[in-house]
Amino acid sequence: MGSSAIDMKTLSSRQLAVARAIAATLFEADALHPVPRERLDFALQELRAYVSRVGLQTRLALGAAFFVLQHAPFLLIGKIRRFTRLSGEARRKYLEKLERSRFGIVMVLVKTLLSFVYFEHPDALAGTGYDSQGLLGPAYAVGAAPPTSRLRVLESSPNPSNPEEPSSELRPATVAKGA
What we know:
mainly alpha; two-stranded antiparallel sheet; 2 strands; elongated
């Protein structure tokens, strides 16, 4: 399989343009602080990789969602332009109205996927203030037992007739505390 087989299983350049415009609109702090191009490139690369692994129904749903998002500005904000041709302010207004409309489920699908891939970038995640510790640190540091204290490892017991071959019977093994 060459790259053309992969391309057939992912998003078209038009769909990626819509995804880029949506991500740029959703994740910019304000008009003075647009999303860095490198983060958008990263998010779109991750989105393409994800879409290349999903089934046909999911790809069709995403294609339909991007089509609706691209062509519905006239219905919601009265602009006879495609989404990718709107100004930043008109895009924000459109996405807000779309989310509150009967087509809101379309926005939920796209917004969820774009959030997953956008916040995989370390700088984007750090920009939210997330430090992987939570507000109080790891849960076990606040009085709960460490997560490893509940681990149970299943090992197969030796086969009595042939000690070299493991049996199909599984038994719990003890795990040292703090391991």
